[in-house]
Amino acid sequence: MRNIFATVSLMIFLAVSAVSAQSPEVLKAKEILDKVSEVTQSYNSIKADFTFSLENTQADITDSHEGTIVISDDKYKATVMNVDSYFDGETLWTHLKEVGEVNISTPDPMDETTLSPANIFNIHEDGFRYIFAGEDNLKGQKVNIIDLFPEDRDKPYSRIKLYVNKNNNHISKIMQLGKDGNNYIIDIKEMKTNVPVEPSMFEFDEEAHPDVDVIDMR
User: Fold this and answer.
1) What is the structure's pLDDT at 175?
2) In Å, how far are 125, 206, 211, 217 from 200, measured between CA atoms?
3) Average pLDDT over every residue of 88-111
């Protein structure tokens, strides 16, 4: 009898889970995210001006910085907080301009303490459950809000909120809600697509910076 009860309970749980997975909020979120992926993948490159903010909810402090990023496939060059980051798909050069130093490393793709510049426009494509969380107005534009919940519960954040422009299916804002009370926010101010790029843009040129100390951490 106990085994029968356990089997029936499991069947009910699976049935409820299946219904939940196909709820209108989940289906609408999937439809929106599919459009975001389709639009983003149609571009050869993206250049975006953004504001990067660290919001500490416990201390009620927000620290914001302006930045720029150019992305092509899995490569990027980002400039923020007087630091230039170059990533050619394998190697990361971090140029600390104030101290005249560049660190060379091979990033761990599993290390997600903060939002990675390499995937800010396709972060939703793997490792998340999602749900449609409503609509809002952002800088005079109507946006859809999608909540992403990491399947890996050991991540340092509880969820990521995506704000998607209803007119062009571009991501307008990303908010990563940290379990430690630190929230990372990327607010896209302007985005240009299919801008000209060269492979050299994503590599640090040591010859052009002869006075910079190079520290190879690989």
Assistant:
1) 93
2) 28, 12, 20, 21
3) 89
Q: Are 185 and 175 in contact (CB under 8 A)?
A: yes
pLDDT tens sequence across 40-59 = 889 999 999 999 999 998 88
Place of tokens 């430690």: 180
The DSSP letter of residue 147 is E
Say what the pLDDT of residue 118 is: 62
Distance CA 66, CA 61 (A): 17
At 216, give phi and psi (nearest 5°). -90, 110
Q: Are 75 and 200 in contact (CB under 8 A)?
A: no
Q: How far apart are CA 206 and CA 33, in angstroms?
A: 40
In this structure, what token pair is assigned to residue 183?
Answer: 């929230």
The structure's pTM equals: 0.81
**Which whole-number Å values give the CA distances from 116 to 10, 92, 137, in the listed order?**
38, 12, 26
CA distances from 98 to 8, 124, 154, 182, 204 (A): 65, 34, 35, 25, 16
CB atoms within 10 A of CB 169: 17
Q: Are 157 and 177 in contact (CB under 8 A)?
A: yes
